[in-house]
Design brief:
By secondary structure, the chain is an alpha+beta fold. The protein has 3 domains: about 1-75, OB fold (Dihydrolipoamide Acetyltransferase, E2P), CATH 2.40.50.100; about 100-165, no CATH class; about 195-415, 2-Layer Sandwich (Chloramphenicol Acetyltransferase). It has 9 helices and 19 strands. The chain has helices at about 125-130, 150-160, 195-210, 220-240, 245-260, 300-320, 325, 390-405, 410-415, and strands spanning about 1-5, 15-20, 30, 35-40, 45-50, 55-60, 65-70, 70-75, 210-220, 265, 270-275, 280, 285, 290, 295, 330-335, 355-360, 360-370, 370-385. Strands 9, 12, 15, 16, 17, 18 and 19 form a 7-stranded mixed β-sheet that branches.
């Protein structure tokens, strides 16, 4: 008797996914709820659990195939099956995965095990293995059933001795370099489903919205002084660090109350206004930029905002964000300052109508009371859909944020 394994519901508006990796092979023993495959959706990577205990049966689709929600991708047969085979010896040749046949990589990089063993590299781990050129068969996995995690690969890459150029693996099928010229090669890597979706959405935003960006700068002296003064007591009481994001989130909530169009969206010939603020926080993850959502940010305390952002950031790096974490959002805050960015024109995250870009803090000369003094300044950028938001509203919104950051007391008295 066999049980069908179907693609689970992936979230609102997500109807299909790409099979990124088979975590179990036909004949392998499978426990109840044990992941048998990894799917890549437009937003996150999702593992498909086995609905019953038994033996891995037929794989109906192959890695790289696109599957719809509810489609059958495999079967689970009754029985006990065989245990996963141990890692193949280093001397055994490892067949390269079909999608990565042209990618230069050390032995066993494309598939961790040979013969009838289980390929246990998730898509994110596989990319890190290829990027850092490490041998997965020589890394001890700390994940479930000894599976490699991203942290295992990064640790191995950091501890690996430098390899002389002469010992580096030669590119596969690379064109011969000109005589006397340094070796040159090209590498083709298929875009992940998430990266393809990011590209489509950002291009669509440019083509659909009448996008415009307005700038201002803000003196961070008051916020930095407040943060320094209460840093230790805040962390001791709430168990989380007091960062700048909670100040800006609160400032956005204050400004959106006065300029509701910034926290709205266009739906056909109607404007949808929200009486709540769900802030999408742009976070850099292994697979690309993701924007998990802090719900009801306007009603949260500073500590609750910091805890929510810290949790989302941690799970984004671990690749454990769920579809619910990514769904929704009425306004976006993107902090390019953590990477040293001085100024940018952020792109709207559709169907939202505005995004606030934060940048690095640096001391610059400014005039205060007729004197030139050095102050920690930050450029702010607000990109917005001019179809919905007028220039006056955008400038006023950004000015309100500037005033609230320069005088944080305004955040307490709603001024």
């Amino acid at each position: 008797m066999s049980t069908e394994v179907k693609v689970p519901t992936l979230g609102e508006s997500v109807t299909e996914a790409t099979v990124g990796e088979w975590l179990k092979q036909p004949g392998d023993a499978v426990a109840l709820d044990e992941p048998i495959a990894s799917l890549e959706t437009d937003k996150v990577a999702v593992e498909v659990p086995s609905p019953v205990a038994g033996v891995m049966g037929q794989q109906v689709v192959a890695a790289g195939d696109t599957v719809a929600v509810g489609a059958v991708i495999a079967t689970i047969e009754a029985g006990s099956g065989k245990a996963a085979a141990p890692a193949a010896p280093a001397s055994a040749p490892a067949p390269a995965a079909k999608a990565e046949a042209a990618v230069p990589a050390p032995a066993a990089t494309a598939s961790e095990e040979t013969g009838d063993g289980v390929t246990t590299l998730s898509p994110a781990v596989r990319r890190l293995v290829l990027e850092h050129g490490v041998d997965p068969s020589k890394i001890k996995g700390s994940g479930k059933d000894g599976r490699l995690t991203k942290e295992d690969v990064l640790a191995a890459a950091n501890n690996a001795p430098e390899v002389p150029a002469a010992a580096a693996p030669a590119p596969v099928a690379a064109a011969p370099a000109a005589s006397g010229a340094p070796g040159r090669r090209e590498e083709r890597v298929k875009m992940t489903r998430m990266r393809q979706t990011i590209a489509k959405r950002l291009k669509s935003a440019q083509e659909t919205a009448a996008m415009l960006t307005t700038f201002n700068d803000v003196d961070m002296s008051a916020v930095m002084a407040t943060r320094d003064k209460y840093r230790e007591s805040f962390e001791k009481k709430h168990g989380v660090r007091l960062g700048f994001m909670s100040f800006f989130t609160k400032a956005v909530a204050l400004a959106a109350h006065d300029i509701p169009a910034v926290n709205a969206r266009i739906d056909g010939d109607e404007i949808v206004y929200f009486d709540y603020l769900d802030v999408s926080v742009a976070v850099s993850a292994p697979n690309g930029l993701v924007v998990p959502v802090v719900r009801n940010a306007d009603s949260l305390s500073f500590a609750e905002i910091e805890k929510a952002i810290a949790d989302l950031g941690k799970r984004a790096k671990e690749g454990t964000l769920t579809m619910d974490d990514m769904t929704g959002g009425t306004f976006t805050i993107s902090n390019g300052g953590v990477f040293g960015g001085l100024m940018s024109t952020p792109i709207i995250n559709p169907p939202q109508s505005a995004v606030l870009g934060l940048h690095r803090i640096e001391e610059r000369p400014v005039v205060r009371n007729g004197e030139i003094v050095a102050r920690p300044m930050m450029y702010l950028a607000l990109s917005y859909d001019h179809r919905l938001i007028d220039g006056r509203e955008a400038v006023t919104f950004l000015k309100t944020i500037k005033e609230a950051i320069e005088d944080p007391t305004r955040l307490l008295i709603d001024l």
